[in-house]
Predict the 3D structure of the following.
Amino acid sequence: MSGLTDYYSSGINTNGGEFGAYRTPTRRHRGQDISHSSKPGTVGVPALHAGRVVGKLAPSTKHGFGYGIIIRSVLDGMEFDFTYAHGPWASQQAIGEWIPQGKIILHEGNSGATQGSCVHIEQQRVGGGYLDPLPEIRRVAAGRLTEAAPAPAPAPAPAPAAPAVDHDVVCSWNWGGIQKMLKHYDYGYEGGIDHVASKGGPTLKAFQNFLNRKGYAGRAGVGTLKLDGDPGDKTIRAMQQWLNESGRNAGKVDGIPGDQTKGAFHVAEADNYRAFPNVW
């Protein structure tokens, strides 16, 4: 026995081996049986179509396939799994291996639930039901060639990078009322009320001290702030926590000093400026 078309041109078992034949009162045969041998292991089974190995079977009490292999092929733009079963030994092809049409993938055998040396072939639409493989067997016997495998789907375009957050913008806000509060409650600010919070300067260091000691940094999930005067993400999150807890509604605690956070900060600054008229 040689050749793809020769193999599939004959050997169909029409005496109970056809698709839909009852195996038990409630279970039907899901494929077609083909036999060209009486002795297991003497006749190779060529792949009906090119495809990739997606599964392998071994004898089990949970099924009657015995040794088998499952190859996924593309036909008319649709994916199908072809199962070949009852091999006399395990198939030598590896999971993921690409199989050309006509390559010997198994030998006729009698492992599993079978009464003689044969191959059992099933065809299943990926994500769907079982089909009678006989029409496809007939088409291959008549010379049908496998379609080219579909090209891999292009990789999704990377998500656009998020715009950089300018945390330093808070240095341009009015800090006069905050300086008064920090000085009044002795959070480490000893300078004048100059309304300025330079990066790395005393106003922001004292403000970070305030956010730590009052627990806002911890409740914002950023731990203990370094007293370095850097208005980074953690400092902004702790600021937003303070503004929200004090009823000024800074919005999300997300480390982004947007318009809502800015508006809430200005309300807090004005409130504190009025609250400490004698602090200068």
